[in-house]
Sequence to fold (365 residues):
Amino acid sequence: MDWQKETKTSFFPESGPARLLLLLAILAAGLGVRLYNADAPPLDFYPVRQYRAAMLARDFYYESSPEAISGKVREEALAAKPKPLEPPITETIASLLYRAAGGEHLIIPRLMSILFWMIAGIFLYRLATEMISPDAGIVAASFFLFLPLGVAASRSFQPDPLMIMFLLGALYSVFRYYKTPSGYGLATACLFSALAILTKPTCVFPILSVFIAMRVPSKNFRNIIFGRDLLIFLAASILPSFIYYGYGIFFAGFLKSQAESSFVPALLTKTFYWKGWYYMATDAVGIYSFFISAIGILLIRSVWTKYFILGLLAGYVLFCLAFPYHIQNHLYYHLMLIPVVALCIGITASYILGSLSSTKGIWRL
Fold:
């Protein structure tokens, strides 16, 4: 397989102090945008989901610290405890930080979500830089950090920022594994994939699609479908989620209604589903971003970049078909589209900036 980058020339510095300062400036600006009014109540982005998470975190905090509140208030709060829709990872961490901080402060989970998104941006930067070009790394990370939906979602007390962090960690690990196969690389990819899918099972589609798509250039059908590393990856990635969600759906029952409302195959035959999908997707990343990313797909030269991007797109489409109810009316269900579009825009930008790399003076500015 051809592991060559998309472009050989760079507009931005490829390394050194200037490159580091540019990256730090982007990260600092992305962080600053998110810290504005960070102590405001969680009413800015899907407040129902945010307050559900806040109630769970509060209940965990009261359970571990009974002395934090009066007995009557604690009893009433625990009686209203909602059932988790996903493993309450962020809520548990928030409750532990409440205990360390000595009280329930909703700014804590907001700062957690911001941190998760910033780490995800670093994973995306490394992926775009190593897979496409140094220019693509800068542009993709900038798009990811400053897209309005990404800014709003990264301040939300939901599992989605954590999911995006693990998703991008998994995608970067899969890329590294195929570039330099090793047992350690496979184990890292399995770990991030298992965490991503456990956090939100919707991640299973893009992760597995990319892992399988990267095997296609080998042209060995048996290896594509039955390769030993693929079987290990499937088992390690899916087993933890299968245990948790299988128990919640088929035994305990607290996830049964959620599962039934998510997969409604009859919606696939309805016009409003396809229109809703279109409007949600274009609202998520912007209609012009789609055009620019489509150009990027057409410009791909490297075989491995092509299959990686096509695997990501296939995973997103399969995910939208599997969750038709939420896809047409929940904007945050399209968050995994952001890194896909960011990478494709990075490809377009790498060619444009590469052609400008020899300019000087005012033209370079």
User: Anything to note?
Assistant: The chain has 19 helices and no strands.
